[in-house]
Amino acid sequence: MFKPSIDDMMSGKKSRYALVIGVAKRAREIADDMVKTSSTETEKSVNLAIKDFKEHKYEILEQQINE
């Protein structure tokens, strides 16, 4: 089972919720691309999305809130 460290993927971010949403959106993009290209990828789209974030290919942008 693929279990990446969430601390590695957070990289200074505050919101785990934002990370989950980002990974879910990226996984949906990967799944849609697989359908369009009729690709038969052996790895699940969620695992591929997690790898993208872990390798810093994608980044989560959080809105700055002035306190």
Key features?
67 residues, single chain, mainly alpha, elongated
How is this fold's topology laid out?
Elements: H1 6-10, H2 16-37, H3 45-54
Helix pairs in contact: 2-3
Any overview of this molecule?
- This protein has 67 residues and is mostly helical.
- The chain has a domain at 14-54.
- It has helices at 6-10, 16-37, 45-54.
- α2 crosses α3 (45-54).
- It is elongated, with a radius of gyration of 13 Å.
- The mean pLDDT is 81.
The 3D shape can be described as elongated
Low-confidence stretches: none
Biggest sheet: strands, sense, closure? none
What is the CA-based Rg, rounded?
13 Å
Number of helices: 3
End-to-end distance: 41 Å
Helix-strand sequence: HHH
* Total strands: 0
List the quaternary state of the chains. single chain
Short structural description:
By secondary structure, the chain is mainly alpha-helical. The protein has a domain at 14-54.
